[in-house]
Structures are given as structure tokens and as C-alpha cells.
Amino acid sequence: MEFLSVIDLPNFADPQIWISLLTLTFLEIVLGVDNIIFISIISDKLPKEKQRFARNLGLAFAMIFRVALLLMINWIIGLKEAVITLPWFNEPGSELPLSLSWKDIILLAGGIFLIGKSTFEIHGKMQGHDDAPKPKSGASTLMAMVVFQIILIDMVFSLDSILTAIGLVDSVLLMIIAVIISIGIMMAFAGPISAIINKYPSLQMLALSFLVVIGVMLVAEGIHQHVSKNIIYSCLAFSLVVEMLNIKFRNNQKKKYLKLNPDLNKDLSIKEENE
Question: Which of 40, 91, 185, 225 is the most exposed place for a label (fewest CB within 10 A)?
């Protein structure tokens, strides 16, 4: 495949260009789901008034990273060249020693970070650490930590997203337009998605478990073990549907219980008003 040119202007009169743009935009949104989930969970540690700012900042960094990587397309393609060989491991389905490129190393590091961070968050929720009120003091330090973690994972997800896009279209400008549109859409829906995830603890656990799976997938990709993303996203969609049915069932049961206990319903209403 020839190196892509940044200055090539696509022929927007060609319907195929618009089909490619819509397809790539949709793909960027799908690939950005895990990014939104991570940003939503990590920004929940901040005071409520700062959460939207952290989400938008995280997605803005994601857009900046993607556009910057696209403008350095030749360098990105060069990341696939081997820089280190591990003689005690073999390439999948081969007797040759495992060779890692910078892309593989970045995916490995990002995957390990995602597994560790998500596991730590799951442990914290199981121990009830998240029930503590969010501190007002030291908010700037907490914001800096959250932003740093968002930037770190943005770098990994951006690299994976751009490498996927390169295989679909030949125009860098078209990729940049798709990235900007997809990030704009994600910014618009990040708030509602974050509110839903953080409202239901079971959805939080499902989202964190999904991030663990994504981390494992990144590690597998880093050692050249291909894992179908279609299977992973299909499993997530199925799990999400089941969990939404569970939430609906629990809400119906709660309504029935409150209907049978009107005094309890009144107490809960007073409590919600005070909050």
C-alpha cells in the first residue's frame, strides 16, 4: 500500500467518497465506545460540576491524538516494523521467534494498564470505597490524575483506531473529517451515557468487566494473537440487553413494593428532595 498523502483532496462529487466517510465515521464511533466507557467511569471520581469538563477534555485529547497521528501517517506505518525479538516465545503458528514492533509494545502497555486499572476499580467498588463522598479539597490534584489517565488510554485507543482506519480508505483528509464528526457525536452523547452507567452499579460492573476484556484483547494483539472485535462487541451488546432487562425487572419489583408500602414511598420522596 502506498503512503497516504495529506494534501490529496477527495472528490466529494463521487458517491463512493460519501459512503466511505459514513462507514468510517460509524466505525470510529463504535471503536470509541470503550474510550467513552473508560472516561465515564474515571471522571465519576471528580465532583459533579467537573465531570462534564473532564469528559469533554478527554474526548478533545482523543481527537487531537487521532488527527496528529493521521498527519504523521508515514511514521505510524513505520511503527509496524520489528524493534525487539523475544527468542523464548514463538510467533503464533510458526517456529520463528516473536518480534515486537513499537505498535505491539504500546498495545501491550496499554492493555496491561487497562486490565490493572479496571481490576482496581472493580475491587474498590466491591469493597465499597466508592461510597465515600468526593473530596472538595485537593480537587486540582485529583483532576490532574484523572486527566493523565485519560490521556494515557487515549493514546492507546487512538493508535488502534487510526491503524484500523488506514486499512479502509486512502485519503487522510477523509479520515480527519470522520474523526472530527465522530468525536463531536461522542461528546454530545457522552453525558447521557455516563449518567446511565454511573446511575446503576450493575452497569458500572459490566462496563469495567468489558474494559478488562478490551485490555486482554490489546495484550493479545500485542503478541500477534488476533481476537475478533465483532465477537467482543456482540457479547457486550448481548450482556447489555440482559442487564437492561434486569434493571427493568428490578424497577418493576421496586414499584410494586413501594405501592404496598406507601409510608416507605413517602420517606424516600422526602430523602430525595433533601438530596
Answer: 225
The model's confidence at residue 131, banded by pLDDT at 50, 70 and 90, is: low
First-residue to last-residue Cα distance in the chain:
59
The 10s digit of each residue's pLDDT in 206-225 is 878 887 888 888 888 888 88
Determine contact, residues 79/119, Cβ cutoff 8 Å.
no
Domains of the chain, residue spans: 15-227, 229-275
CA dihedral 126, 130, 131, 134 (to 10 degrees): 170
Distance CA 118, CA 149 (A): 12
Q: Which residues of 140-162 are buried (b: 16+ CB within 10 A; e: fewer)?
A: eebbeebbebbeebbbbbbbbbb
Block residue for cell numbers 462507514: 23
Cell 465515600 belongs to residue = 132
CB count within 10 Å of CB 60 equals 13
Q: Annotate 188-214 with b (16+ C-beta within 10 A) or e (fewer).
A: eebeebbeebbebeebbebbbebbbbb
The two most distant CA atoms of the chain are separated, in Å, by 72
DSSP string over 88-105: EEE-TTSSSEEEEEHHHH
CA distance 41 to 258: 31
Residue 205 has pLDDT above 50, yes or no: yes
**99: which strand partners?**
85
